[in-house]
Amino acid sequence: MFRTCDVTGLRVHRPAEALIKANAVAAVVSLAIGGVYAILVALSRWPAVHLLNGPAYYRVLTGHGLNMLLFWIIFFEVAGLYFGGAVLLNSRLAAPALGWLAFALMVAGAGLVNVMILQGKADVLMTSYYPLRGDPLYYLGVILFAVGALVACGLFFATLFIARKERTYGEGSVPLAVYGLAVAAIIAVVTLLHGAAIYVPTFLWSLGLIGQLDASLYRILWWAMGHSSQQINVAAMVSVWYMLGALTVGATPVNEKICRTAFLLYALFIMVASAHHLLVDPALSPAWKIWNTGYVMHLAILASMIHAMSVIAAVERAQRVRGYARGLFEWLARGPWRNPGFSALALSVVGFGFLGGISGVTYGTEQINIVRHNTLAIPGHFHGTVVAGTTLAFMGLTYYVLPLIFRRQVVLPGLARLQPWVFGLGTYGLAAFLMLAGGYGIPRRHSDIAFGGMPFAPAFDPTATMWLSLAELFGLISVVGGVMYVLVTVGSVFFGAPVGAPAQVTFPVSPPAEPVPGLVAAATAGSAAAAERGG
Amino acid sequence: MRDRHDEGPGTPGALVLALIFLATFVLIYFSNLKYLAGTWWVR
Protein backbone atom coordinates (compact mmCIF):
# COMPACT_ATOMS: atom_id res chain seq x y z
CA MET A 1 0.00 0.00 0.00
CA PHE A 2 2.90 2.35 0.76
CA ARG A 3 6.36 2.80 -0.70
CA THR A 4 9.20 4.90 0.67
CA CYS A 5 10.44 7.59 -1.71
CA ASP A 6 14.05 6.88 -2.68
CA VAL A 7 14.82 10.59 -2.80
CA THR A 8 12.88 12.31 -0.02
CA GLY A 9 12.23 9.41 2.34
CA LEU A 10 8.51 10.27 2.42
CA ARG A 11 5.95 7.47 2.66
CA VAL A 12 3.98 7.46 -0.57
CA HIS A 13 0.50 5.96 -0.62
CA ARG A 14 0.41 4.01 -3.89
CA PRO A 15 -3.32 4.59 -4.66
CA ALA A 16 -2.74 8.32 -4.12
CA GLU A 17 0.30 8.16 -6.38
CA ALA A 18 -1.74 6.58 -9.17
CA LEU A 19 -4.36 9.32 -8.88
CA ILE A 20 -1.69 12.04 -8.88
CA LYS A 21 -0.27 10.58 -12.09
CA ALA A 22 -3.69 10.34 -13.78
CA ASN A 23 -4.64 13.93 -12.93
CA ALA A 24 -1.21 15.26 -13.92
CA VAL A 25 -1.44 13.53 -17.31
CA ALA A 26 -4.96 14.91 -17.86
CA ALA A 27 -3.62 18.37 -16.97
CA VAL A 28 -0.85 18.19 -19.57
CA VAL A 29 -3.27 16.89 -22.22
CA SER A 30 -5.60 19.84 -21.48
CA LEU A 31 -2.65 22.23 -21.74
CA ALA A 32 -1.73 20.76 -25.13
CA ILE A 33 -5.31 21.12 -26.42
CA GLY A 34 -5.53 24.66 -25.03
CA GLY A 35 -2.20 25.41 -26.69
CA VAL A 36 -3.52 24.42 -30.12
CA TYR A 37 -6.46 26.77 -29.56
CA ALA A 38 -3.95 29.43 -28.44
CA ILE A 39 -2.14 29.26 -31.78
CA LEU A 40 -5.42 29.81 -33.62
CA VAL A 41 -6.40 32.71 -31.35
CA ALA A 42 -2.99 34.38 -31.80
CA LEU A 43 -3.05 33.97 -35.58
CA SER A 44 -6.59 35.37 -35.71
CA ARG A 45 -5.87 38.46 -33.64
CA TRP A 46 -2.63 39.19 -35.48
CA PRO A 47 -3.91 41.86 -37.93
CA ALA A 48 -1.52 40.82 -40.72
CA VAL A 49 -2.66 37.17 -40.58
CA HIS A 50 -6.30 37.31 -39.41
CA LEU A 51 -6.80 33.56 -39.78
CA LEU A 52 -10.28 33.15 -38.34
CA ASN A 53 -13.24 35.49 -38.16
CA GLY A 54 -16.75 35.43 -36.75
CA PRO A 55 -18.05 32.22 -35.14
CA ALA A 56 -14.86 30.24 -35.82
CA TYR A 57 -12.87 32.78 -33.80
CA TYR A 58 -15.32 32.65 -30.89
CA ARG A 59 -15.20 28.85 -31.06
CA VAL A 60 -11.43 28.67 -30.61
CA LEU A 61 -11.49 31.43 -27.98
CA THR A 62 -14.08 29.47 -25.97
CA GLY A 63 -11.98 26.32 -26.24
CA HIS A 64 -8.79 28.16 -25.30
CA GLY A 65 -10.36 29.69 -22.19
CA LEU A 66 -11.97 26.52 -20.87
CA ASN A 67 -9.00 24.22 -21.49
CA MET A 68 -6.45 26.62 -20.04
CA LEU A 69 -8.33 28.35 -17.24
CA LEU A 70 -10.36 25.37 -16.02
CA PHE A 71 -9.14 21.98 -17.21
CA TRP A 72 -5.32 22.35 -17.21
CA ILE A 73 -5.19 24.22 -13.94
CA ILE A 74 -7.84 22.30 -11.98
CA PHE A 75 -6.54 18.86 -13.04
CA PHE A 76 -3.07 19.97 -11.87
CA GLU A 77 -4.52 21.36 -8.64
CA VAL A 78 -6.33 18.12 -7.90
CA ALA A 79 -3.01 16.30 -8.38
CA GLY A 80 -1.53 18.88 -6.00
CA LEU A 81 -4.26 18.29 -3.41
CA TYR A 82 -3.63 14.53 -3.42
CA PHE A 83 0.14 15.16 -3.22
CA GLY A 84 -0.25 17.63 -0.36
CA GLY A 85 -2.90 15.66 1.51
CA ALA A 86 -1.40 12.20 1.24
CA VAL A 87 2.31 12.39 0.35
CA LEU A 88 3.44 15.49 2.28
CA LEU A 89 1.53 14.33 5.36
CA ASN A 90 2.76 10.70 5.13
CA SER A 91 -0.88 9.65 5.11
CA ARG A 92 -3.15 7.37 3.16
CA LEU A 93 -5.62 9.00 0.78
CA ALA A 94 -9.26 8.74 1.86
CA ALA A 95 -11.44 6.56 -0.44
CA PRO A 96 -9.25 6.25 -3.56
CA ALA A 97 -12.19 4.66 -5.42
CA LEU A 98 -14.05 7.97 -5.05
CA GLY A 99 -10.92 9.67 -6.39
CA TRP A 100 -11.25 7.62 -9.56
CA LEU A 101 -14.95 8.49 -9.78
CA ALA A 102 -14.03 12.17 -9.48
CA PHE A 103 -11.38 11.74 -12.18
CA ALA A 104 -13.85 9.99 -14.49
CA LEU A 105 -16.41 12.77 -14.01
CA MET A 106 -13.79 15.45 -14.73
CA VAL A 107 -12.51 13.68 -17.86
CA ALA A 108 -16.06 13.07 -19.11
CA GLY A 109 -16.98 16.71 -18.44
CA ALA A 110 -13.89 18.13 -20.12
CA GLY A 111 -14.35 15.79 -23.09
CA LEU A 112 -18.01 16.73 -23.50
CA VAL A 113 -17.23 20.45 -23.38
CA ASN A 114 -14.53 20.08 -26.04
CA VAL A 115 -16.74 18.01 -28.33
CA MET A 116 -19.57 20.55 -28.05
CA ILE A 117 -17.21 23.41 -28.81
CA LEU A 118 -15.68 21.65 -31.81
CA GLN A 119 -19.15 20.83 -33.15
CA GLY A 120 -19.95 24.54 -33.04
CA LYS A 121 -22.69 24.06 -30.47
CA ALA A 122 -21.18 26.28 -27.81
CA ASP A 123 -19.78 29.47 -29.37
CA VAL A 124 -20.61 31.27 -26.14
CA LEU A 125 -17.14 32.17 -24.84
CA MET A 126 -16.05 31.10 -21.39
CA THR A 127 -18.54 33.38 -19.65
CA SER A 128 -21.53 32.09 -21.70
CA TYR A 129 -23.42 35.24 -20.66
CA TYR A 130 -27.19 34.74 -20.63
CA PRO A 131 -29.04 34.87 -23.02
CA LEU A 132 -26.33 33.34 -25.23
CA ARG A 133 -27.42 29.72 -25.45
CA GLY A 134 -25.10 26.75 -25.83
CA ASP A 135 -26.06 23.13 -26.29
CA PRO A 136 -27.38 21.55 -23.03
CA LEU A 137 -24.56 19.00 -23.22
CA TYR A 138 -22.04 21.85 -22.98
CA TYR A 139 -23.48 22.99 -19.65
CA LEU A 140 -23.72 19.36 -18.54
CA GLY A 141 -20.02 18.95 -19.32
CA VAL A 142 -19.09 21.92 -17.14
CA ILE A 143 -21.33 20.59 -14.33
CA LEU A 144 -19.78 17.09 -14.50
CA PHE A 145 -16.28 18.57 -14.35
CA ALA A 146 -17.22 20.77 -11.38
CA VAL A 147 -18.84 17.89 -9.48
CA GLY A 148 -15.70 15.79 -10.01
CA ALA A 149 -13.52 18.62 -8.70
CA LEU A 150 -15.83 19.03 -5.69
CA VAL A 151 -15.51 15.30 -4.86
CA ALA A 152 -11.70 15.64 -5.11
CA CYS A 153 -11.79 18.56 -2.63
CA GLY A 154 -13.88 16.43 -0.28
CA LEU A 155 -11.31 13.65 -0.48
CA PHE A 156 -8.55 16.13 0.36
CA PHE A 157 -10.38 17.30 3.50
CA ALA A 158 -11.10 13.68 4.49
CA THR A 159 -7.39 12.90 4.05
CA LEU A 160 -6.46 15.85 6.29
CA PHE A 161 -8.84 14.41 8.91
CA ILE A 162 -7.27 10.94 8.64
CA ALA A 163 -3.73 12.33 8.84
CA ARG A 164 -4.66 14.33 11.94
CA LYS A 165 -6.41 11.38 13.57
CA GLU A 166 -3.59 8.94 12.83
CA ARG A 167 -0.92 11.56 13.64
CA THR A 168 1.03 10.86 10.46
CA TYR A 169 2.83 14.20 10.49
CA GLY A 170 3.63 14.63 14.14
CA GLU A 171 2.38 17.32 16.47
CA GLY A 172 1.33 20.84 15.58
CA SER A 173 -0.16 22.27 12.42
CA VAL A 174 0.24 20.85 8.92
CA PRO A 175 3.22 22.05 6.83
CA LEU A 176 2.82 25.49 5.29
CA ALA A 177 2.39 24.18 1.72
CA VAL A 178 -0.44 21.88 2.84
CA TYR A 179 -1.98 24.77 4.79
CA GLY A 180 -1.98 26.82 1.59
CA LEU A 181 -3.52 23.96 -0.37
CA ALA A 182 -6.22 23.67 2.29
CA VAL A 183 -7.03 27.36 1.78
CA ALA A 184 -7.13 26.72 -1.98
CA ALA A 185 -9.53 23.82 -1.39
CA ILE A 186 -11.80 25.94 0.85
CA ILE A 187 -11.97 28.61 -1.87
CA ALA A 188 -12.60 25.84 -4.40
CA VAL A 189 -15.62 24.54 -2.51
CA VAL A 190 -17.19 28.00 -2.32
CA THR A 191 -16.35 28.56 -6.01
CA LEU A 192 -17.87 25.27 -7.12
CA LEU A 193 -21.05 25.85 -5.11
CA HIS A 194 -21.49 29.18 -6.87
CA GLY A 195 -20.84 27.34 -10.13
CA ALA A 196 -23.64 24.91 -9.32
CA ALA A 197 -25.92 27.83 -8.39
CA ILE A 198 -25.56 29.30 -11.88
CA TYR A 199 -24.79 26.38 -14.22
CA VAL A 200 -27.63 24.10 -13.03
CA PRO A 201 -30.37 26.70 -13.76
CA THR A 202 -28.66 27.58 -17.05
CA PHE A 203 -28.57 23.89 -17.99
CA LEU A 204 -32.31 23.60 -17.21
CA TRP A 205 -32.97 26.78 -19.22
CA SER A 206 -31.04 25.39 -22.19
CA LEU A 207 -33.27 22.31 -22.02
CA GLY A 208 -36.34 24.55 -22.08
CA LEU A 209 -37.41 23.55 -18.56
CA ILE A 210 -37.02 27.11 -17.23
CA GLY A 211 -38.52 30.03 -19.11
CA GLN A 212 -35.92 32.71 -18.44
CA LEU A 213 -33.09 33.73 -16.14
CA ASP A 214 -32.18 37.08 -14.61
CA ALA A 215 -29.25 38.32 -16.71
CA SER A 216 -27.73 40.52 -13.97
CA LEU A 217 -28.02 37.76 -11.36
CA TYR A 218 -26.36 35.43 -13.88
CA ARG A 219 -23.38 37.79 -14.14
CA ILE A 220 -23.00 38.11 -10.37
CA LEU A 221 -23.19 34.36 -9.75
CA TRP A 222 -21.07 33.45 -12.76
CA TRP A 223 -18.27 35.73 -11.59
CA ALA A 224 -18.58 34.46 -8.04
CA MET A 225 -17.43 31.23 -9.68
CA GLY A 226 -15.40 32.64 -12.59
CA HIS A 227 -13.04 34.85 -10.66
CA SER A 228 -13.00 32.79 -7.48
CA SER A 229 -11.72 29.88 -9.55
CA GLN A 230 -8.70 32.05 -10.31
CA GLN A 231 -8.24 32.62 -6.57
CA ILE A 232 -7.89 28.87 -6.13
CA ASN A 233 -5.02 29.23 -8.56
CA VAL A 234 -3.45 32.04 -6.57
CA ALA A 235 -3.53 30.10 -3.28
CA ALA A 236 -2.28 26.92 -4.99
CA MET A 237 0.41 28.86 -6.86
CA VAL A 238 1.72 30.44 -3.65
CA SER A 239 1.86 26.95 -2.07
CA VAL A 240 3.86 25.81 -5.10
CA TRP A 241 6.20 28.80 -4.64
CA TYR A 242 6.98 27.66 -1.11
CA MET A 243 7.44 24.06 -2.34
CA LEU A 244 9.80 25.17 -5.14
CA GLY A 245 11.81 27.33 -2.73
CA ALA A 246 12.20 24.32 -0.45
CA LEU A 247 13.04 21.87 -3.26
CA THR A 248 15.51 24.05 -5.15
CA VAL A 249 17.51 25.85 -2.43
CA GLY A 250 16.16 24.32 0.79
CA ALA A 251 14.29 27.52 1.69
CA THR A 252 12.16 27.57 4.82
CA PRO A 253 9.85 30.49 5.65
CA VAL A 254 11.41 33.19 7.77
CA ASN A 255 8.17 33.59 9.71
CA GLU A 256 5.49 30.95 9.25
CA LYS A 257 2.89 32.80 11.33
CA ILE A 258 2.94 35.70 8.88
CA CYS A 259 2.61 33.32 5.92
CA ARG A 260 -0.32 31.48 7.47
CA THR A 261 -2.02 34.76 8.36
CA ALA A 262 -1.63 35.85 4.73
CA PHE A 263 -3.28 32.62 3.56
CA LEU A 264 -6.16 33.36 5.94
CA LEU A 265 -6.57 36.78 4.32
CA TYR A 266 -7.07 34.94 1.01
CA ALA A 267 -9.75 32.71 2.49
CA LEU A 268 -11.58 35.66 4.02
CA PHE A 269 -11.34 38.36 1.38
CA ILE A 270 -10.17 37.15 -1.98
CA MET A 271 -13.55 36.08 -3.29
CA VAL A 272 -14.99 39.55 -2.86
CA ALA A 273 -12.53 40.62 -5.52
CA SER A 274 -14.84 38.96 -8.05
CA ALA A 275 -16.82 42.19 -7.95
CA HIS A 276 -14.22 43.94 -10.12
CA HIS A 277 -15.58 42.07 -13.14
CA LEU A 278 -18.83 43.95 -12.68
CA LEU A 279 -17.45 47.47 -12.43
CA VAL A 280 -19.09 48.49 -15.71
CA ASP A 281 -22.29 46.56 -14.99
CA PRO A 282 -25.28 48.93 -15.04
CA ALA A 283 -27.32 46.70 -12.73
CA LEU A 284 -25.19 47.32 -9.63
CA SER A 285 -24.79 50.42 -7.48
CA PRO A 286 -21.53 52.39 -7.31
CA ALA A 287 -21.47 51.91 -3.52
CA TRP A 288 -21.51 48.12 -3.90
CA LYS A 289 -18.75 48.25 -6.51
CA ILE A 290 -16.51 50.64 -4.59
CA TRP A 291 -16.88 48.83 -1.25
CA ASN A 292 -15.97 45.48 -2.78
CA THR A 293 -13.15 46.60 -5.02
CA GLY A 294 -11.86 49.73 -3.32
CA TYR A 295 -11.50 48.42 0.20
CA VAL A 296 -12.04 44.71 0.87
CA MET A 297 -10.14 43.53 -2.23
CA HIS A 298 -6.95 45.17 -0.98
CA LEU A 299 -6.78 42.88 2.03
CA ALA A 300 -6.34 39.97 -0.38
CA ILE A 301 -3.78 41.99 -2.35
CA LEU A 302 -1.92 42.59 0.90
CA ALA A 303 -1.72 38.81 1.32
CA SER A 304 -0.11 38.37 -2.12
CA MET A 305 2.45 41.07 -1.31
CA ILE A 306 3.29 39.36 1.99
CA HIS A 307 3.74 36.02 0.23
CA ALA A 308 5.91 37.46 -2.56
CA MET A 309 8.22 39.10 -0.02
CA SER A 310 8.18 36.00 2.18
CA VAL A 311 9.13 33.59 -0.62
CA ILE A 312 11.98 35.83 -1.80
CA ALA A 313 13.18 36.35 1.79
CA ALA A 314 13.12 32.59 2.40
CA VAL A 315 15.26 31.99 -0.71
CA GLU A 316 17.66 34.79 0.29
CA ARG A 317 17.98 33.45 3.81
CA ALA A 318 18.68 29.91 2.57
CA GLN A 319 21.29 31.16 0.13
CA ARG A 320 22.98 33.34 2.78
CA VAL A 321 23.05 30.38 5.17
CA ARG A 322 24.85 28.46 2.44
CA GLY A 323 27.43 31.21 2.31
CA TYR A 324 26.32 33.38 -0.60
CA ALA A 325 26.24 36.49 1.53
CA ARG A 326 28.37 39.08 -0.24
CA GLY A 327 26.62 42.41 -0.77
CA LEU A 328 22.92 42.75 -1.38
CA PHE A 329 22.44 40.28 -4.20
CA GLU A 330 25.12 37.56 -4.29
CA TRP A 331 22.45 35.16 -3.01
CA LEU A 332 20.40 35.94 -6.11
CA ALA A 333 23.24 35.88 -8.64
CA ARG A 334 24.44 32.53 -7.28
CA GLY A 335 21.03 30.90 -7.37
CA PRO A 336 20.66 27.57 -9.21
CA TRP A 337 19.57 29.27 -12.42
CA ARG A 338 20.23 26.14 -14.49
CA ASN A 339 17.55 24.34 -12.49
CA PRO A 340 14.20 24.92 -14.28
CA GLY A 341 12.41 24.63 -10.94
CA PHE A 342 14.29 27.69 -9.68
CA SER A 343 14.08 29.75 -12.86
CA ALA A 344 10.35 28.99 -13.13
CA LEU A 345 9.90 30.10 -9.51
CA ALA A 346 11.73 33.38 -10.09
CA LEU A 347 9.94 34.14 -13.37
CA SER A 348 6.59 33.22 -11.81
CA VAL A 349 7.05 35.53 -8.80
CA VAL A 350 8.20 38.47 -10.94
CA GLY A 351 5.58 37.92 -13.67
CA PHE A 352 2.75 37.55 -11.20
CA GLY A 353 3.78 40.60 -9.20
CA PHE A 354 4.94 43.10 -11.80
CA LEU A 355 2.70 42.19 -14.74
CA GLY A 356 -0.39 40.56 -13.26
CA GLY A 357 -0.42 42.13 -9.80
CA ILE A 358 0.21 45.81 -10.52
CA SER A 359 -2.12 45.79 -13.53
CA GLY A 360 -4.79 43.96 -11.55
CA VAL A 361 -4.87 46.55 -8.78
CA THR A 362 -4.81 49.38 -11.29
CA TYR A 363 -7.57 48.01 -13.52
CA GLY A 364 -9.57 46.97 -10.46
CA THR A 365 -10.11 50.63 -9.59
CA GLU A 366 -13.57 51.66 -10.75
CA GLN A 367 -12.68 54.84 -12.58
CA ILE A 368 -9.79 53.19 -14.46
CA ASN A 369 -11.84 50.09 -15.14
CA ILE A 370 -14.39 52.20 -17.01
CA VAL A 371 -11.80 52.94 -19.72
CA ARG A 372 -10.01 49.57 -19.67
CA HIS A 373 -12.70 46.98 -19.04
CA ASN A 374 -13.60 45.91 -22.55
CA THR A 375 -10.11 46.32 -23.99
CA LEU A 376 -7.21 43.90 -24.46
CA ALA A 377 -5.63 45.36 -21.31
CA ILE A 378 -7.67 42.89 -19.24
CA PRO A 379 -6.51 39.74 -21.09
CA GLY A 380 -3.02 41.25 -20.73
CA HIS A 381 -3.53 41.39 -16.95
CA PHE A 382 -4.76 37.85 -16.54
CA HIS A 383 -2.11 36.37 -18.81
CA GLY A 384 0.29 37.95 -16.31
CA THR A 385 -1.39 36.27 -13.34
CA VAL A 386 -2.59 32.92 -14.64
CA VAL A 387 0.02 32.19 -17.30
CA ALA A 388 3.22 33.95 -16.18
CA GLY A 389 2.28 33.27 -12.56
CA THR A 390 0.30 30.06 -12.03
CA THR A 391 1.16 28.10 -15.17
CA LEU A 392 4.88 28.83 -14.92
CA ALA A 393 4.92 27.80 -11.23
CA PHE A 394 3.11 24.55 -12.05
CA MET A 395 5.56 23.89 -14.89
CA GLY A 396 8.46 24.38 -12.48
CA LEU A 397 6.98 21.91 -10.00
CA THR A 398 6.56 19.34 -12.79
CA TYR A 399 10.35 18.95 -12.97
CA TYR A 400 10.11 17.50 -9.44
CA VAL A 401 6.84 15.62 -9.92
CA LEU A 402 8.52 13.62 -12.71
CA PRO A 403 11.31 12.11 -10.54
CA LEU A 404 9.40 11.96 -7.23
CA ILE A 405 6.00 10.66 -8.36
CA PHE A 406 6.51 9.23 -11.87
CA ARG A 407 10.00 8.13 -10.75
CA ARG A 408 11.49 9.01 -14.12
CA GLN A 409 14.52 11.09 -14.97
CA VAL A 410 13.83 14.23 -16.96
CA VAL A 411 14.72 13.62 -20.60
CA LEU A 412 16.23 16.39 -22.70
CA PRO A 413 17.55 18.31 -19.65
CA GLY A 414 18.98 21.05 -21.89
CA LEU A 415 15.51 21.71 -23.30
CA ALA A 416 14.06 21.59 -19.79
CA ARG A 417 16.56 24.24 -18.60
CA LEU A 418 15.60 26.51 -21.46
CA GLN A 419 11.85 25.92 -21.23
CA PRO A 420 10.88 28.34 -18.40
CA TRP A 421 12.89 31.10 -20.08
CA VAL A 422 11.22 30.67 -23.48
CA PHE A 423 7.76 30.35 -21.93
CA GLY A 424 8.49 33.27 -19.59
CA LEU A 425 9.80 35.53 -22.36
CA GLY A 426 6.77 34.75 -24.55
CA THR A 427 4.26 35.25 -21.77
CA TYR A 428 5.86 38.42 -20.40
CA GLY A 429 5.78 39.90 -23.92
CA LEU A 430 2.23 38.69 -24.57
CA ALA A 431 0.91 40.18 -21.32
CA ALA A 432 2.78 43.48 -21.62
CA PHE A 433 1.93 44.11 -25.28
CA LEU A 434 -1.73 43.14 -24.78
CA MET A 435 -1.90 45.75 -22.02
CA LEU A 436 -0.28 48.35 -24.27
CA ALA A 437 -2.70 47.52 -27.10
CA GLY A 438 -5.57 47.78 -24.62
CA GLY A 439 -4.28 51.19 -23.60
CA TYR A 440 -4.98 52.30 -27.16
CA GLY A 441 -8.54 51.02 -26.92
CA ILE A 442 -8.22 47.76 -28.88
CA PRO A 443 -11.30 45.74 -27.86
CA ARG A 444 -11.07 42.31 -26.28
CA ARG A 445 -13.02 39.24 -27.47
CA HIS A 446 -12.93 40.58 -31.00
CA SER A 447 -11.27 39.00 -34.00
CA ASP A 448 -11.36 42.02 -36.26
CA ILE A 449 -10.47 45.48 -35.00
CA ALA A 450 -11.37 46.88 -38.43
CA PHE A 451 -14.94 45.66 -37.85
CA GLY A 452 -15.00 43.83 -41.18
CA GLY A 453 -14.52 46.96 -43.28
CA MET A 454 -17.74 48.55 -42.05
CA PRO A 455 -18.10 52.21 -43.02
CA PHE A 456 -17.99 53.32 -39.36
CA ALA A 457 -14.77 51.46 -38.61
CA PRO A 458 -12.97 53.16 -35.72
CA ALA A 459 -9.58 54.62 -36.49
CA PHE A 460 -7.01 53.22 -34.09
CA ASP A 461 -3.63 54.80 -33.69
CA PRO A 462 -1.20 52.81 -35.91
CA THR A 463 0.90 52.20 -32.81
CA ALA A 464 -1.89 49.97 -31.53
CA THR A 465 -1.45 47.63 -34.50
CA MET A 466 2.23 47.34 -33.64
CA TRP A 467 1.47 46.42 -30.00
CA LEU A 468 -1.17 43.94 -31.09
CA SER A 469 1.16 42.28 -33.61
CA LEU A 470 3.95 42.08 -31.03
CA ALA A 471 1.55 40.57 -28.50
CA GLU A 472 0.57 37.76 -30.85
CA LEU A 473 4.21 37.19 -31.88
CA PHE A 474 5.19 36.77 -28.23
CA GLY A 475 2.08 34.65 -27.74
CA LEU A 476 3.48 32.25 -30.33
CA ILE A 477 6.85 32.24 -28.50
CA SER A 478 4.89 31.32 -25.38
CA VAL A 479 3.32 28.43 -27.33
CA VAL A 480 6.84 27.27 -28.28
CA GLY A 481 7.67 27.23 -24.55
CA GLY A 482 4.51 25.20 -23.96
CA VAL A 483 5.48 22.71 -26.68
CA MET A 484 8.90 22.32 -25.05
CA TYR A 485 7.16 21.60 -21.72
CA VAL A 486 4.88 18.97 -23.25
CA LEU A 487 7.84 17.36 -25.08
CA VAL A 488 9.89 17.10 -21.90
CA THR A 489 7.05 15.85 -19.68
CA VAL A 490 5.61 13.31 -22.14
CA GLY A 491 9.12 12.20 -23.14
CA SER A 492 10.13 11.74 -19.50
CA VAL A 493 7.02 9.74 -18.60
CA PHE A 494 7.46 7.34 -21.52
CA PHE A 495 11.21 7.30 -22.10
CA GLY A 496 12.84 8.62 -18.90
CA ALA A 497 15.26 6.30 -17.11
CA PRO A 498 13.95 5.05 -13.73
CA VAL A 499 14.92 6.95 -10.59
CA GLY A 500 16.07 4.74 -7.71
CA ALA A 501 18.39 7.01 -5.75
CA PRO A 502 18.81 10.74 -4.99
CA ALA A 503 21.82 10.95 -7.31
CA GLN A 504 19.65 9.91 -10.25
CA VAL A 505 17.33 12.93 -9.97
CA THR A 506 18.06 15.21 -12.91
CA PHE A 507 17.56 18.45 -10.98
CA PRO A 508 18.63 17.79 -7.38
CA VAL A 509 16.39 18.17 -4.37
CA SER A 510 18.09 20.58 -1.97
CA PRO A 511 18.36 19.64 1.71
CA PRO A 512 16.85 22.25 4.07
CA ALA A 513 19.20 25.16 4.66
CA GLU A 514 18.98 25.28 8.44
CA PRO A 515 20.85 28.08 10.19
CA VAL A 516 24.12 26.75 11.66
CA PRO A 517 25.48 29.10 14.38
CA GLY A 518 29.03 29.36 13.03
CA LEU A 519 27.90 29.76 9.45
CA VAL A 520 25.27 32.31 10.39
CA ALA A 521 27.93 34.48 11.97
CA ALA A 522 30.01 34.23 8.81
CA ALA A 523 27.00 34.83 6.60
CA THR A 524 26.07 37.92 8.55
CA ALA A 525 29.59 39.29 8.50
CA GLY A 526 30.53 38.57 4.92
CA SER A 527 30.71 35.88 2.30
CA ALA A 528 31.65 32.44 3.51
CA ALA A 529 31.39 31.17 -0.03
CA ALA A 530 33.91 33.79 -1.08
CA ALA A 531 36.18 32.72 1.76
CA GLU A 532 35.87 29.11 0.61
CA ARG A 533 36.82 30.15 -2.89
CA GLY A 534 39.74 32.11 -1.46
CA GLY A 535 38.20 35.38 -2.63
CA MET B 1 4.73 25.96 13.65
CA ARG B 2 8.19 27.40 13.69
CA ASP B 3 8.89 31.07 14.02
CA ARG B 4 12.39 31.98 12.94
CA HIS B 5 12.50 35.70 12.52
CA ASP B 6 15.21 35.84 15.18
CA GLU B 7 17.33 33.06 13.65
CA GLY B 8 19.74 33.20 10.76
CA PRO B 9 20.88 36.11 8.61
CA GLY B 10 18.69 39.05 7.69
CA THR B 11 17.23 39.50 4.21
CA PRO B 12 18.15 42.99 2.99
CA GLY B 13 18.05 41.92 -0.67
CA ALA B 14 14.41 40.86 -0.39
CA LEU B 15 13.63 44.20 1.25
CA VAL B 16 15.24 46.13 -1.62
CA LEU B 17 13.31 44.03 -4.19
CA ALA B 18 10.07 44.70 -2.30
CA LEU B 19 10.79 48.45 -2.35
CA ILE B 20 11.49 48.32 -6.11
CA PHE B 21 8.13 46.56 -6.54
CA LEU B 22 6.31 49.14 -4.44
CA ALA B 23 7.93 52.04 -6.33
CA THR B 24 6.89 50.46 -9.68
CA PHE B 25 3.39 49.92 -8.37
CA VAL B 26 2.99 53.50 -7.18
CA LEU B 27 4.42 54.84 -10.44
CA ILE B 28 2.05 52.83 -12.64
CA TYR B 29 -1.01 53.29 -10.45
CA PHE B 30 -0.67 57.03 -10.16
CA SER B 31 0.27 57.46 -13.82
CA ASN B 32 -3.40 56.60 -14.32
CA LEU B 33 -4.48 59.53 -12.16
CA LYS B 34 -5.83 61.41 -15.17
CA TYR B 35 -8.68 58.91 -15.20
CA LEU B 36 -9.37 59.61 -11.53
CA ALA B 37 -9.44 63.41 -11.84
CA GLY B 38 -12.75 64.82 -10.73
CA THR B 39 -13.48 62.07 -8.24
CA TRP B 40 -13.98 63.20 -4.69
CA TRP B 41 -10.54 62.24 -3.52
CA VAL B 42 -8.55 63.69 -6.44
CA ARG B 43 -9.45 67.36 -6.65
Can you lay out the helices and strands and say which pair or pack?
The complex is a heterodimer of chains A (535) and B (43).
Chain A lengths: L1 E3 L6 E3 H32 L9 H33 L8 H23 L17 H30 L10 H31 L8 H12 L1 H22 L6 H14 L16 H36 L8 H4 L6 H24 L2 H7 L4 H28 L8 H27 L22 H34 L21 H9 L2 H5 L3
Antiparallel strand pairs in A: 1-2
Chain B lengths: L11 H20 L12
How would you explain this protein's 3D organization?
The complex is a heterodimer of chains A (535) and B (43). Chain A is mainly alpha-helical and 535 residues long. Helix content of chain A is 69%, strand content 1%. In chain A, strand 1 and strand 2 form a beta hairpin. In chain A, helix 8 packs antiparallel against helix 9 and helix 11 runs parallel beside helix 14. Chain A is globular. Chain B is mostly helical and 43 residues long. The radius of gyration of chain B is 18 Å and the shape is rod-shaped. Chains A and B meet through helix 8, helix 9, helix 11, helix 12 and helix 16 of A and helix 1 of B.
| Number of E-type strands of chain A | 2
- DSSP helix count of chain A? 17
Q: Round the mean pLDDT of chain B to the nearest integer and report it.
A: 76
Mean pLDDT of chain A: 91
N-to-C CA distance of chain B: 48 Å
Low-confidence stretches of chain A: 518-535
What's the quick description here?
The complex is a heterodimer of chains A (535) and B (43). By secondary structure, chain A is mostly helical.
What are the defining features of this structure?
heterodimer, A: 535 residues, mainly alpha, two-stranded antiparallel ribbon, 17 helices, 2 strands, 69% helix, globular, B: 43 residues, 47% helix
